[in-house]
């Protein structure tokens, strides 16, 4: 074990890039909450705070401050960009990094069409710099934050991992796909690598404490944060993007999955690395396997919150598909994982977070 700067011994560490963001912060708290004394590890977060709030005078972003309050544990935090090779090397010098969970990325589909270079820079150059640094320090275990976006237009439902990938329109989606291809090539080039790419369907929900949640900057792009901001009175009404799809009620159907279940999926992926001989590239869907329409989401949210969510149907949003939901058999088989939280849980936890933090972390 490396000695810590204050004389204490340092445990093997999990490096979490983008750990101040939505799925990243929920994964950090889940790992810390489930840490056993017999198996200690440190959590090291690197985040450039491009989409995370840090209060003036604070060293750490608000999400991590609250996680430390809730768990009573310390998180090592570095304010740095993963494209900064020097800053990354410094982290690997300071900690005994054992594995990496890589969330850091830009993620707005529409914005990526306007700013392709920024997206490729952040998501691909950043990822390559991270991999170079990992290789330099002999760290080969990686969990990657991917998305069902890599599948593009569904050719069959539910979607399993054998569904073709790469026929995509947005630079965001392409960047996730390109990173998966890079990871496959890495694994072919060197058997030391063990990489699990978790393809999330639609993450929603918040930590049950109501202290940690999704805090989108500006007007939300995604359905659940939009609904919850309407319910709390921050936005006047929801625009429903199209009601003429071939679905249960004409509105878009998606596989919403609780962020705490996703977090648990990452913890299980890390456990897989302990299996002797486990290596190579593995893509795994994380979803519930069940799809809900926009109007079903509105109704469920109204029931959970006791608030009304006024909406107006407008035209379809460019690039949207009618329906999308996951085949989750591989996650069950490889990770022994399945989503345990249902739609009322997702709505209740989102609402608790939104009600208690109407302005997100800045309140
Ligand atoms: N929707 C509305 N009104 C809104 C927002 C969304 O009606 O204000 C609808 C959409 O048309 C869609 C559904 O709600 O039918 C879900 O939309 P989201 O934007 O919440 O989610 P998407 O499925 O479009 O996007 C998600 C992730 C992306 C990822 C994509 C892959 O947010 O990062 O899945 O399909 F790329």
Short description:
By secondary structure, this protein is an alpha/beta fold. Helix content is 37%, strand content 17%.
Model description:
It is a single chain. With 363 residues, the protein is an alpha/beta fold. It has one domain (12-362): NAD(P)-binding Rossmann-like Domain (Rossmann fold, 3-Layer(aba) Sandwich), CATH 3.40.50.720. The protein has helices spanning 22-33, 62-71, 85-94, 109-114, 116-136, 171-189, 223-231, 259-272, 294-305, 329-335, 343-356; strands at residues 12-17, 42-47, 76-79, 96-102, 141-147, 194-200, 202-204, 238-241, 253-254, 256-258, 280-286, 292-293, 311-314. A 7-stranded parallel beta sheet has the order 3-2-1-4-5-6-11, sandwiched between helices. A two-stranded parallel ribbon has the order 7-10. Helix 1 (22-33) links the parallel strand 1 and strand 2 (42-47). The model has no long low-confidence stretch (mean pLDDT 96). It binds uridine-5'-diphosphate-4-deoxy-4-fluoro-alpha-D-galactose.
Which short descriptors sum up this protein?
37% helix, 13 strands, 17% strand, 7-stranded parallel beta sheet, two-stranded parallel ribbon, Rossmann fold, 11 helices, alpha/beta, binds uridine-5'-diphosphate-4-deoxy-4-fluoro-alpha-D-galactose, 363 residues
Q: What is the topology?
A:
Layout: E1 12-17, H1 22-33, E2 42-47, H2 62-71, E3 76-79, H3 85-94, E4 96-102, H4 109-114, H5 116-136, E5 141-147, H6 171-189, E6 194-200, E7 202-204, H7 223-231, E8 238-241, E9 253-254, E10 256-258, H8 259-272, E11 280-286, E12 292-293, H9 294-305, E13 311-314, H10 329-335, H11 343-356
Parallel strand pairs: 1-2, 1-4, 2-3, 4-5, 5-6, 6-11, 7-10, 8-13
Antiparallel strand pairs: 9-12
Helix pairs in contact: 1-2, 1-8, 3-5, 5-6, 7-9, 7-11, 9-11
This protein binds uridine-5'-diphosphate-4-deoxy-4-fluoro-alpha-D-galactose (UFG).
């Amino acid at each position: 074990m490396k000695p810590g700067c204050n004389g204490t011994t340092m445990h093997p560490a999990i490096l979490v890039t983008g750990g101040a963001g939505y799925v990243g912060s929920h994964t950090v708290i889940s790992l810390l909450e489930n840490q056993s004394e017999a198996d200690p590890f440190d959590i090291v977060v690197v985040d450039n705070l491009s989409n995370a709030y840090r209060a003036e005078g604070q060293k750490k972003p608000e999400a991590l401050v609250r996680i430390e309050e809730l768990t009573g544990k310390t998180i090592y935090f570095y304010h740095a960009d993963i494209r900064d090779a020097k800053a990354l090397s410094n982290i690997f010098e300071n900690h005994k990094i054992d594995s990496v969970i890589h969330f850091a990325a830009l993620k707005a589909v529409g914005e990526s069409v306007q700013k392709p270079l920024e997206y490729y820079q952040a998501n691909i150059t950043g990822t390559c710099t991270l991999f170079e640094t990992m290789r330099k320090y002999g760290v080969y275990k990686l969990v990657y934050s991917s998305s069902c976006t890599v599948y593009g237009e569904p050719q069959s439902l539910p979607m399993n991992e054998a569904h073709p990938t790469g026929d995509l329109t947005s630079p965001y989606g392409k960047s996730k796909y390109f990173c998966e291809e890079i990871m496959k090539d890495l694994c072919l080039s060197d058997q030391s690598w063990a990489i699990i790419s978790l393809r999330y369907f639609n993450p929603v929900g918040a930590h049950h404490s109501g202290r940690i949640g999704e805090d989108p900057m500006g007007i939300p792009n995604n359905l659940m944060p939009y609904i919850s901001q309407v319910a709390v009175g921050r936005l006047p009404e929801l625009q429903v993007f199209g009601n003429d799809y071939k679905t249960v009620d004409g509105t878009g159907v998606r596989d919403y999955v609780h962020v705490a279940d996703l977090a648990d999926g990452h913890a299980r992926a890390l456990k897989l690395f302990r299996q002797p001989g486990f290596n190579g590239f593995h893509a795994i869907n994380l979803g519930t396997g069940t799809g809900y329409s926009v109007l079903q989401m509105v109704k469920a949210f109204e029931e959970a919150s006791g608030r009304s969510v006024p909406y107006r149907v407008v035209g379809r949003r460019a690039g949207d598909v009618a329906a999308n939901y996951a085949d989750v058999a591989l996650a069950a088989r490889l990770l022994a994982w399945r989503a345990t939280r249902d739609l009322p849980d997702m709505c209740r936890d989102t609402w608790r977070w939104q009600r208690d933090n109407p302005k997100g972390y800045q309140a």
